[in-house]
Amino acid sequence: MTTTRIDRCFAKLKDEGRPALVTYFMGGDPDYETSLKIMKAMPAAGTDVIELGMPFSDPMADGPAIQAAGLRALKGGQTLARTIQMVRDFRAHDDDTPIVMMGYYNPIYIYGVERFLAEARDAGLDGLIVVDLPPEMDAELCVPALKAGINFIRLATPTTDAKRLPKVLENTSGFVYYVSMTGITGSALANTGDVSEAVARIKSHTDLPVCVGFGVKTAEQARAIGASADGVVVGTAIVNAVASVLGPDGQMTADPAEAVATLVSGLAQGVRRARLEAVD
Amino acid sequence: MNMPIQPNSFRTGPDEAGMFGVFGGRFVAETLMPLILELETQWNQAKTDPAFQAELKNLSTYYAGRPSKLYFAEGLTRHLGGAKIYLKREDLNHTGSHKINNCLGQILLAKRMGKTRIIAETGAGQHGVASATVSARFGFPCVVYMGATDVERQKPNVFRMKLLGAQVNPVSSGHGTLKDAMNEALRDWVTNVHDTYYLIGTAAGPHPYPEMVREFQSVIGTEAREQILEQEGRLPDAIIASVGGGSNAIGLFHPFLDDRDVRIIGIEAGGRGLGGVEHCASMSAGKPGVLHGNRTYLLQNEDGQIVDGHSISAGLDYPGVGPEHSWLRDSGRVEYVPIMDDEALAAFQLTTRVEGIIPALESAHAIAQAVKLAPTMGKEEIIVINLSGRGDKDVHTVASMMGMEF
Ligand SMILES: Cc1ncc(COP(=O)(O)O)c(C=O)c1O
């Protein structure tokens, strides 16, 4: 497979000697235009890789914050077609920042796997994370995505033991996403010592970068996790920043893009301190 | 029209990947995968382990009260004036429905796996009650997820679960029905995967659940087949069961699948009609998709978002169906037809009046199909209906439908 923006991004950060900041937001939350503005504000604020959430009615691995964000997006008229359009609109201004779409399989299955992959690639998508497609189901989307030149980023978890890890890594590309705990998005962060041990274990099996997500909300946590991981993923905190400027009827009380940018700048400082403080 | 491919036997599925044709599979988060593989290993050992089977048989007999009777419903037969109607009396089981069959099997597996905590989802509350019951019997703490709407409409069962020591967690996302309860149970499971056994209540979910639940429920069809041969000297002409997730139906159907002369009919909840979104007839009006760990027929919009359905019966109020049913539908072996809320309600009242049996609203859907079918059949013909549960839990719902209060 040829190199993608994801591969180039991690190569560059390796030279710089710092972990990546990966930020998740929900496509279409609270509406298409606002959400696109949030997306565009991310790279300038310090995001290295964008995770674009595809809303789904039944997100079984997500906590209340991302569930609510998905429902706001769906209520605002977001569809998979519009999420692809969001990639296209973003790419008109930014041809460097990697974009990974994250969500659940059914909307893609209904859209049609081949049609989705072709349109998403042409729009400028780099990678996919699909929560409910374990390696046992690789024929569904993973293998076709790799053929289409899109990275398929697999989740490894605390329950992925040494015996299973090679199977999880087999068709993974771009990076490995280590889920810091057994749980849903938005839960409390696990013990950072356990996390860095797990990262080391995965890195002994693969040359791919290993990013850690689930539970990281503050700059300090981003720094701590970034000391051992190649990237830190923040999702619920971003979605909460959007929610914090929405009134009870969903009306905006401040600019969500600004709220997100402020949070991302702080997180970006966190990951930039990660390796400096790790050495002392 | 495409002629469906007819296999030599309809009873060999699923394959090793847990597929029934294109349906089924294991569409779950990685966190759950190791556990699901472990469950499959344990299940494969248990099903051929004589000690496991003996313990299950013993509990089924002395605790649940099996075999359940196959009862010749003379009142209904006379009233409808056609085929002879038999009711498979799952309502007489301990806890009042077929759900106990599956719960006894799975609690023994949970014990075998060394798990120490049970979670379950429930719609009508029958599976919740059965889960709470076996948890009490085997000394496990039990948490039941139940949609907030269902908590409201199945109050007697909520109280029963609490008496049995279970914690009932109402779920208010979506319409607050079975689908939402299942989402929340899955979220609990990924969080507590190290000590928790998820006791799924229907023949759906990731492999090996659909197969496992079918095997535990097939006792219904196995008994019914022997009983009708003994009581009538021949197989029935038609068998009918209601389909929520599909466990009581697959339990009755599976032993008859290769009896090609037996017509098999599954009843979906037609709600207020298939025209709009107020029904739960996923196989009559939905299309294949992926939810809750398996590919199956689902109610969904053109963007692949799952749609909340409606049924008067909480146990049928689910936008999907077990994957084996989807396969049986596409292969043409089983017919799936909808019954509307008001037809089910009429069958509920009829059965109560002419048989002195108050059926569960779920089971009343199956009876309503017989109300249509029996008069078109000869007096020598036979219909077997799965009376999957008793209707005590539904009296509040029925009263309010009849404009009464008590
Ligand atoms: C009495 C009864 N029948 C049928 C059902 C539907 O479930 P299934 O389709 O799994 O049998 C339920 C579910 O709660 C039930 O309580």
TrEMBL record, chain A:
Keywords: Amino-acid biosynthesis, Aromatic amino acid biosynthesis, Lyase, Tryptophan biosynthesis. GO terms for molecular function: tryptophan synthase activity. Pathway: Amino-acid biosynthesis; L-tryptophan biosynthesis; L-tryptophan from chorismate: step 5/5. InterPro entries: Aldolase_TIM, RibuloseP-bd_barrel, Trp_synthase_alpha_AS, Trp_synthase_suA. It comes from the Bacteria. Belongs to the TrpA family. This is Tryptophan synthase alpha chain. It comes from Tianweitania sediminis. The gene is trpA.
Automatic annotation (TrEMBL), chain B:
It holds the Pfam family PALP. InterPro entries: Trp_synth_b_CS, Trp_synth_beta, Trp_synth_beta/beta-like, TrpB-like_PALP, TrpB-like_PALP_sf. GO terms for molecular function: tryptophan synthase activity. Its cofactor is pyridoxal 5'-phosphate. GO terms for cellular component: cytoplasm. Tetramer of two alpha and two beta chains. This is Tryptophan synthase beta chain. It comes from Tianweitania sediminis. The lineage of its organism: Bacteria, Pseudomonadati, Pseudomonadota, Alphaproteobacteria, Hyphomicrobiales. The gene is trpB.
